[in-house]
Fold these 4 entries.
Entry 1:
Amino acid sequence: MGIDIYKYHVSAPPNIHLCLSFSMDSPLKLQEQSKGFLFDSVLHKQAGFPKEFLWPDLVRAQQELSEPLVDLEGFFKGDEEATKQAANIIKDACSRHGFFQVINHGVDPNVIRDAEDYMDHFFRLPVSEKLKARRMPGSLCGYSGAHADRYASKLPWKETLSFRYHENSSDLVVLDFFKSALGNDFEQTGMVYQKYCEAMMDLSFAILELLAISLGVDRKLYRKFFEDGFSILRCNFYPPCQEPGNTLGTGPHCDSNSITILHQDQVGGLEIFTNKVWQTIPPLQGALIINIGDTFTALSNGKYKSCLHRAMVNQHEQRKSLAFFLSPREDKVVRPPQELVCSEGKRMYPDFTWLNLSRFVQNHYRADDSTLQNFTNWSQSVNL
């Protein structure tokens, strides 16, 4: 590729392999060259299939995930029986794999449609323009091409744009991001995503309340915990790929945040690993997908699972998705309620902050199904 990239290993306990890629020359210059080359010459122009995108020995999904839908209409109307039924479905799904779909979720379909449509305003820009919003090393926000600034192999076949959101009606943080990074021409785009994040936050509070009910704790407990949190919205763009059997749009990973709300377009591609096989979650018009992340696994004292999932690419069609990652305030201590500890008889994970877990994943570790346990081992070894 003409880019000199090497593997950098960070000091860690013997049972943890920590690996990131860093450019050996001017980091910013090579990041720009790398991203520009990968996406202008490879992903969009299909100039051969580069080995950096190869995922060897891919196993195809064998079946479709079959789960009852969680209907939120009764919950929003204050129907206790319907609320109990929704909480029971959530409890069953989260105890096994941590994925469920919600319908009648109260999010305006026009808000979702606009958020999906406005992705084109950014991803159709020339690479040089997209790089104005580039994600800096160690940051969660900005533009990334195939995460080429972080990894040297098994690159995902996608582009992403990520930005922060926090609950403060007087602070239009999403709008400000677009205007500062891309200029006033993107003011309307910023407003579209500001509204989308606000809708996702409202839905997050409802999901948190149902999660608390399903776990048998104070129904407002988790909602209060996240009221001053910071969230991330990530726009994912997956170009068509001539060799979809050789690569992935997003590699297998568990989310390290608390809960994720995903909207995927009708192309599809989301798969989860459960019951020892990969299973697809086909798009369902009007539904949103919710999944548990590692942070909520710790908040539930291990009762609810974060699950490996991945995104496939399509040979003929581009795919778009929107992932809203809910997280607590960075310095807030992640600790399960005492009643869950008592029911298990012990703490499954020690106290930690979201900031430390986030830094571990961004700077030291490629997320997988062992992230939370390896973070625990690592943090204890360095006395965080």
Note: DSSP finds 13 helices and 17 strands in the chain.
Entry 2:
Amino acid sequence: MGISLKDRNRLECFPEQLSSISLRVGKVIMKYLDKIYKESEVSWFTPVEIFKPWYAHGIAEAIMRTANLSVPLKIYEIGGGSGTCAKGIMDYIMLNAPPRVYNNMTYISVEVSPSLAEIQRETVGEVRSHLSKFRVECRDATDRSGWGDAEQQPCWVIMLEVLDNLPHDLIYSENQVSPWMEVWVEKQQDRETLSELYKPLQDSLIKRCVAIIDLDKKHDSQSSAILKAKSVWSKVFPKPQRCWLPTGCLKLLEVLHEVLPKMSLIASDFSYLPDVRILGERAPLVSTKKDGSSSDYSSYLDARGDADIFFPTEFWLLERIDHYCSGWLKLQKDLSSKEGKKRRTITLDTSSFMDEFGLPSKTRTKDGYNPLLDDFKNTKFYLSVPTHNTV
């Protein structure tokens, strides 16, 4: 395998004090947030924690508007953190859906961290009636064996700030026309330093990801003269290329589409990250926190155990991976196939999503500032539901 970077497990909780602060003016909130960040060992508070319960309520409303409520509602959440999203969604459905919807619903959290799994049970258990409808399965969602037999029942899958933590693989090309190489990391002999080693593409997951992105496109439509000119240009002005592949996302969606073929998906994550110092397309932000201050690394090789790693999500690529894993993009290679897309998808910035499904009036300050709509400009929502079109 090439180099895969995983974020360490973090408890992304938000102090209860913020919930008791009246939303007076934006400056007061920002000042308080700055103070809490400096005092905390946590580098990032998730929106679902900051805006509880309103953020989760927006997601619940999106589900209720789209779900077929004539069948029992089943929700999976991948990486449920402290359980705030699960409790918020179940609270909203209990209060706003017909009683039969709440009474027959199932909410399953797939959580790899045993400590977070226990915290989720405690959070959701604050409402006693939720417990009979909620369970945590402590396992890796990307492990196919943990899912058992495929389910044909319609269901929802929620992933909040999951994609940025999933493993990525790095590939390298020495110039514009050279083939892509896998990047491996090796430890120097008798030294603690790490260095990169380049090998031909051989990992099947990396190959599939490269094919989906179409990085190895042959430019068949271009003339041989243009291709020859590009080859000469790359030799005169060689430009090394580095690209981070969302192989963890591909692996997860391959499993989800296999075991939950009728799932509807809601994912939210970073669409871009500011001040990234690591080189390469879709490069991560790698930082560490000490004495209340964060500092960023210029090389992932320097990051050790306590580093936080965040990858941006290219939502057009997420959509393409989603279509690939559903089987539709594979069918398009067969020119005789007339089968239509198997998914209906839409990407919305967080402000648009919450303006449509949430209750932004609940987070608006007296001076008109609304952090639910005005902040988190670098995050988006991705919604994907199954369709049976056969055009």
Note: Residues 1-24 have pLDDT under 50 and may be disordered.
Entry 3:
Amino acid sequence: MSALLTSKQAVELHKSLIAYLAAAGLSNSAAALREEIQIGDTFDEATQKRYEGLLEKKWTSVVRLQKKVMDLEARNQSLQQELDSATPTSLAMKNKDPKSWLPRSPARHTLEGHRLSVSCVAFHPVFSSIASGSEDTTIKIWDWELGELERTIKGHTRGVLDVDFGGPRGGTLLASCSSDLTIKLWDPSDDYKNIRTLPGHDHSVSAIRFVPSGAAGAPSSGNLLVSASRDNTLRIWDVTTGYCVKTIKGHADWVRDVTPSFDGRWLLSGGVDQTARLWDAASGECKGLFQGHDHVIECVAIAPPSTYEHLSTLAGLKKPPPASSSAEFIATGSRDKTIKLWDARGTLIKTLIGHDNWLRALVFHPGGKYLLSCGDDKTIRCWDLTQEGKCVKTIEDAHGHFVTGMRFAPSIMKEAQPPQLTNGNGGASTTNGVKKDQGKQMMQIRCVIATASVDMMVRVFAS
């Protein structure tokens, strides 16, 4: 008898083995084992039936537990690496400073309700609402603080590919675009009533963003909306009239993504032709061409001024560009599994390698230190721009399937209290993630990220 088992456990194991062998049709082996261990006549056919399947159940439960143990060991190792590479000071700052906050598993909320793949997510600029769009043709509005579904919006006839909040000052709207070739505008203040439908694209509309109009550190929403489509064009719309005011052509194939600069002067797009292009939003002229990826560009991002200090060092510049300047650096993510960082002239600064599958979304951390990415390898990865783009954190299995979208909650602009402090370099000081801008406004970073996935779920990662 094994020293690991008590006599009672050994008898149970023997009975399970005999029942397994008999059920598998190995009657000779079952009889030999029965004879060898002298189990006796008490183990009759009825008793044997009770033990059938017990061995298989034990085996599968052990495998599940083993997988859970391996997952916990991997997570423990990741946390240990974080601890090993951190100093007591940096750990204390991480807990207090929103600029150093990074998402951590598990998610605070897992939002379930869509019936097909979730394509996109977007945060309301003020309230704790998230909009998610799905291949099931619906948009759902969730409260990310409570983790509850607020409402379901129906109107599109095919999958919803992108959503965004924005619009004229004081009149926030929700925009959505779809494979049904349309863009729809919804009014959150009127139960998300559909107030306008914008037709015009000749194929699926893959991405939309409201174009801001404002200065550095104090962006305000405007009345323009930009859309990217499989018809190879970008279109700029006036949301107050519903008219298309400009059509931008230049891409040779499907435009997969588009994003505006913080001041609305520039638009960055990328697509199936494996190029990213920087456009003058006013004239529609192409001002920059970014070539270097070996596959479709799925996502693009314009670096905010808070990153300039770190990216200019990475680019070998002696001093960073002024914070008032926009679109100085950009990032592109591709199906070739890489992220590329560029300057505005189209010079490649750095290629970030780490993802095992297609890239789907890129988000610059508002604090300026990090770039976050997600993709079809089911992970969220955090790249440290102060360490030459090193991947410093990976959330494995952020979802159970491809991660299709990711957004960072927009920072809240608040009135700053005078007097203003300086940082010794003539610039505005920053404390606890609050940036003071000329004594007038400060930026409060909200440490919340939302992700969308083919697993039909939205996940919220928050501090």
Note: The CA atoms of residues 307 and 368 lie 4 Å apart.
Entry 4:
Amino acid sequence: MGSLCPLLFRVNRLEPELITPGKPTPLETKLLSDIDDQVGIRFHYSVIMTYKNNPSMKGNDAVMVIKEALSRALVFYYPLAGRLREGPNRKLMVDCNGEGVLFIEANADVTLEQLGDTILPPCPHLEEFLFNPPGSDGILGCPLLLFQVTRLTCGGFIFGLRVNHTICDAVGLAQFLNAIGEMAKGADSPSIPPVWARELLNARDPPTITLPHYEYEQLLDSEGSFIIDQSDMAQRSFYFGPQQITALRKHLPPHLSTCSSFELITACIWKCRTLSLRLNPKDTVRLSCAINARGKPMDDLCLPLGFYGNAMGGPTVVSTVELVCASPLGYGVELVRKNKAQMGKEYMQSLADFFVIRGRPPPPMAWNVFVVSDNRHTGLGEFDVGWGRPVFAGLARAVLMLSFYVRENNQEEEFGTLVPICLPRMCLDRFEQELKRMILEHVEDVSK
């Protein structure tokens, strides 16, 4: 997205409060799975959603509607109202104590129209619409979720949400939000009952690593190749609509011309990113794709409907800088397909075994690592508490080596894809130049 003029407005927030389950819930301890408690997801992720005014909801207050529905939904999802503890060997577990989730009520003297594209990632107003109460964002002993609902002067509202990633992925979160939406519309219970079943993603006995897990291996490369100054970081979102997708497909050989938009966009941004970093041509680069392990063709994993834990894996492919940069776009598409093909029951079981055997190592923090997550079909955009579907729904910002895909407009059947990229400013400028070179000249500007 292009640079935007600063927008000045004021947000008045009430003091954060704890929303607890509306009825007594079990006091117990629940273990997270060996996929949940990996070090690589011990962080909070932020989601932002925007809602228009709905005349049919006149007289209803979105803050009160969501707050009440949240309390009722927590009766069924009571572990989310607990706190994380760490046991022997750093094993995470939830103390289901009913302490509650954080909730902030707010008002802003601005309209949705005035906010315009500034609400899209990387949202410069995130701190206004999702305040971080001091001491609330730890992994252990802190609320697992933070909500902020901000009324706008146009009658619409902004719904901000922060989630401890170890407790659920985006698909699991969407399931919980759907339960809140159903409660807001008068349901007595969720249409899809929540299922804990975290033991299904635990290591085998005995654990046995059966596949390579390059996503966690510390590969040896040229000394200093990936040490880049992080003091001048920048973020920008890049738009891929029908014109851009059509233009990129013209780079592919016939046998790849029907590849998915995910495969095409991922190959494109991986190549442009690698080119922009100017790494040693002989060194390795890695691409990990976060892939959902639920449903077909993953039915043999037997995750039940209603499972809301982390069920994502990140299969990884490895290449050299030289090959990624010099090869046609189809080379990257083939590697993305190879990446996706690795996902299966054996991969997830081997990954859980890997964490237990290796002591849950952290993922490599280096610029030659790139992780992508497709959030266009997680279900987050279905969250409706009576005001209809959100205009925009998605993660708010990229994080260093992680980018994600979101719908530019959640209310249209045909939508463009936004991809936030986080890089040192000089590299980000080069990324944009490389991307423009790749898109045919008749597409005037891909960074809308």
Note: The chain is about 25% helix and 20% strand.
